[in-house]
Amino acid sequence: MAMKFDSLLAIRVKNVSRLCRAKPIVTVNGRFPGPTVYAREGDRVLVNVTNSAQYNISIHWHGLKQFRNGWADGPAYITQCPIKTGHSYTYDFNVTGQRGTLWWHAHILWLRATVYGAIVIMPKEGRMFPFPQPHGETKIILGEWWNSDVETLVNEANKLGLPPPTSDSHTINGKPGPLFPCSSKHTFSMEVEAGKTYLLRIINAALNDELFFAIAGHNMTVVEIDAVYTKPFTTRVILIAPGQTTNVLIKADQPRSRYFMAARPFMDAPVPVDNKTVTAILHYKGIPNTVLPSMPKLPAPNNTNVALRYNNRLRSLNTPQFPAKVPLKVDRHLFYTVGLGANPCSSCQNGTQLTASLNNITFVMPKVGLLQAHYFHIKGVFKTDFPDRPPVPFNYTGVPLTANLGTSLGTRLSKVAFNSTIELVLQDTNLLTVESHPFHLHGFNFFVVGSGVGNFDPSKDPAKFNLVDPPERNTVGVPTGGWTAIRFRADNPGVWFMHCHLELHTMWGLKMAFVVENGKSPEESIIPPPKDLPPC
């Protein structure tokens, strides 16, 4: 029987000390990371968010489909206006047809640097995991830490038209680990018993970095990604992009000792990243803390082969109970180029503002929530003329293009017919530089049917698509200098955001939205807005 769960998230500022210094950060319930939201498949969840910080806030429930209920999705100025200081809003949603690990985070400014936490959805009562039942489980939330105030750094960088500095450390459950100064006490430790099996729920909450993760001496068996069960496979290292989740089983089958869990970035493009290694400790019961942990062998930061091999091993479980419902017939083909750019800016350091675009369009955030504008028929907020392909074809991944880097600006959405099947190819480009881009689609899961290096070839590449058991996700990486093809069924009416999950590129305009219409008025196809919806 479905249950109703009520939670309270209090947004407030608190002084937190890391890396030998303290600073005020925005926290949830005074905790960093914030509390885990627990539910069971089929539950109704109500989360009251009260904002006592100086910033406007909104919370996104990353990966929850929110069927007909964009009001609970959370991206500021897309499905709601933010919750102002001193106000509150209750997110009211059903967990339908989903179970596994997801996460929640702030979806305005760069506040998700500290405002984030896990969502754990258990299977329905009486249902088992489709893999060996673990003895215990632990959440591993990977994040980033800046010594300075993040919003100040971002505002200063924007004035110059440049990116802000990279983070000062990565974190595991909010802690940098003993390789950093003043951080022995800020180290996450997980105790295990020899011979027992444990489930790790791993979340990449970092703002800008894809991460390799490994545990010294131990194999990991991948059993789930983005709250979708996978065909299990064993690996020494996983790759996880910002926004993604991965569940792995580990068996405490090594000599009783202490072992480092470690993560550091994967970056195979000439782009600066915080390249330091964050660690936590896997601690066998009964072993004294004086034993020095051993370190896992992580791949080189630019090891493209390891990254591609890992992603190619991901497959949906695709059983009668958990089928992979891949669209075999495509109603509409979309081709979006992903690129950086530079627009004139008289006040910026070099006379230009770095920017980013899809199909050469840099998205301009509205002042009214797009879903409100759609539902209440407010004119002039957005257009529905986002193009299905780029304005001018070119050799997307050829020599770097450093001239004519201007983009067009606009709040342009793509109108999609309800229940139609969509194939979207996301193509990286060498505008300024090639780079990997993780993309997140709100309101849907999708199947990653293909990917490759170089330019997508519509006459040859579709023949190699996996249409049987491709991985099903809500966030996918577009490889550096390559492409990714996804398919999904547009079965969720409303306005749904799609954006790069590198916060830097999202800020620069690497985003767009779909309007899914079913022939009825918005008032008939979308549930009514809640009475406490924040005003714009």
TrEMBL record:
Its predominant location is: secreted
Name what cofactor the protein needs.
Cu cation
Which top-level group of life is the source organism from?
Answer: Eukaryota
Q: Does the keyword Glycoprotein apply?
A: yes
Single GO term (MF)? hydroquinone:oxygen oxidoreductase activity
Record-linked Gene3D superfamilies: Cupredoxins - blue copper proteins
PANTHER family, A to Z: LACCASE-11, MULTI-COPPER OXIDASE
Homology family: Belongs to the multicopper oxidase family.
Q: What is this protein called?
A: Laccase
